[in-house]
Design a protein that fits this description.
Layout: H1 2-29, H2 32-48, H3 54-69, H4 73-93, H5 95-116, H6 120-140, H7 146-163, H8 166-185
Helix pairs in contact: 2-3, 2-4, 3-4, 3-5, 4-5, 5-6, 5-7, 6-7, 7-8
Length: about 190
């Protein structure tokens, strides 16, 4: 019985590994436009089917980040949004394992969306959720997520400024200053 479980586990791992490598090779030889579309479609399908692979979610987030940093903000929006969907499903099933990844994908989505100027309000909602997750993680593990919390607070302050919400922007800026002082001490 134990050998059957072990064989099934290893077989599943090898199959998933082959699929990930296969998709990687496919995306390597496919034009970036098509890779983006296929990556978003596959990521969304995996999330809908309830089979969000952590590696695929991470790769989708990284694709969005890479495209954004390369100046392809329009193309970066779909994978960034898909990564949020996938990490949200993963965090729902294993919050302790994937909460930080969800927060990071929310922040990436907020930054990409803000760069595209697609929907500043949804960017703000995403970064506010990321700040909340980082605050919870930082209270559970003091200091471990303070730099990521700082980056999310900066993004939040920038979005609030862009939206003209001066009072909230000043609160966010004060939080950034407070967190900056904490990180300088540590």
């Amino acid at each position: 019985m134990l050998n059957a479980k072990r064989t099934l586990t290893w077989g599943s791992l090898v199959t998933v590994g082959v699929l990930v490598i296969g998709f990687g090779l496919f995306f390597a030889v496919t034009r970036l436009d098509d890779a983006d579309k296929w990556g978003s479609a596959l990521g969304g399908l995996a999330a809908i089917l309830g089979f969000p692979l952590p590696g695929l979610a991470q790769g989708t987030k990284d694709l969005g980040l890479f495209l954004s940093e390369a100046g392809n903000h329009d193309r970066a929006l779909a994978p960034a949004r898909t990564a949020v969907t996938m990490f949200r499903a993963l965090a729902k099933s294993a919050p302790g394992t994937f909460a930080a990844d969800l927060a990071m994908s929310l922040q990436v989505y907020a930054e990409v969306s803000a760069n595209v100027e697609a929907d500043p309000a949804s960017s703000l909602v995403a970064v506010q959720e990321a700040v909340g997750i980082y605050e919870n993680l930082n209270s559970d593990l003091p200091g471990a997520f303070v730099r990521l919390l700082l980056a999310a607070c900066r993004t939040k302050a920038q979005l609030l400024d862009r939206l003209g919400q001066e009072e909230e922007e000043e609160e966010a800026a004060a939080l950034v200053r407070h967190i900056s002082r904490i990180t300088k001490r540590s």
